[in-house]
Amino acid sequence: MRSIRLRGVLLALAAFTLALASFSIYKNYSPAPFFPENGQTISSSQKMGHEGADQIIPVDESEVLRLRKKVRVFVWVMTSPKSKQRARAVNTTWATRADRDLLVYMSSEADPSLPAVGLSVKEGRNHLTAKTMQAFDYVYKHYFHKADYFMKADDDTYVIMENLRYFLSFFDTKEPFFTGRHFKPEVKQGFNSGGAGYVLSKEALARLAARPKDPPLCKEDGKGEDVEIARCLEKLEVRILNSTDSRGRSRFHTHEPVKHVIKGVSWMHNYDANVVRVVS
């Protein structure tokens, strides 16, 4: 009975810890450069942002409202006709803290109840790149001037919008960058995990939408959308912004809290662009 209670306490603590979005299983280390491998210097304001954005501050609704107006984050959620129940769960949980006029679901079938946009794509992992490319094109066409940042999330992703806005408030959306859980294989500068969700700056989205299509500069369909999006953005000179805080703690997580905090994710040691150390 004691072990069951202890496990319950640990799970509660894990969820609470990740909700504060900085304290996790990773020990301190020197974080990666702000823009890895691009050789540019960081302004003093960017340095302050990168180090200051990890501070835990008391919840203040007036500050929440201020950031909501200052940092406009558009979120599109990837879903499908078979997983619309998960999308409805998003609608009743963290989406209530997003801006409703800046949130859309993307599927292969339109569904006004979500609302979901019906893209001209086939469902399945082999077509995730097409769904993502078309979704970003749609967002650029209809919402580009309404938001500062543009996030791609899955229908099983959970986003703490207040923390996301606070983190992004330290950076310049006119700079060409995107951020998320930074993995190092496949692409020279790495890629941001699709499962953890990733965010494009306004300039990054503009460059993606303006990519050459005849002949195509980027792969427009296939599996591994997070890798293909990163590969495309690299060709467009969009850099990855390091999302870890000044102590090397992660803000974007690929799995549910119990795996990150208690069990650990072994394969991540070989994928993560930053040092991952599990506390024993």
Automatic annotation (TrEMBL):
GO terms for cellular component: membrane. Residues 72-257 form the Fringe-like glycosyltransferase domain. The keyword Transmembrane helix applies. It is an enzyme of class 2 (transferase). Its main location: membrane. The keyword Transit peptide does not apply. InterPro entries: C1GALT1/C1GALT1_chp1, Fringe-like_glycosylTrfase. Its EC number is 2.4.1.122. GO terms for molecular function: glycoprotein-N-acetylgalactosamine 3-beta-galactosyltransferase activity; nucleotide binding. It is found in: Membrane. Pfam families: Fringe (PF02434). Pathway: Protein modification; protein glycosylation. It is a single-pass type II membrane protein. Keywords: Glycosyltransferase, Membrane, Nucleotide-binding, Signal, Signal-anchor, Transferase, Transmembrane, Transmembrane helix. Residues 1-21 form the signal peptide. Belongs to the glycosyltransferase 31 family. Beta3-Gal-T subfamily. PANTHER family: BETA1,3-GALACTOSYLTRANSFERASE, GLYCOPROTEIN-N-ACETYLGALACTOSAMINE 3-BETA-GALACTOSYLTRANSFERASE 1-RELATED. This is N-acetylgalactosaminide beta-1,3-galactosyltransferase. The lineage of its organism: Eukaryota, Metazoa, Spiralia, Lophotrochozoa, Mollusca.
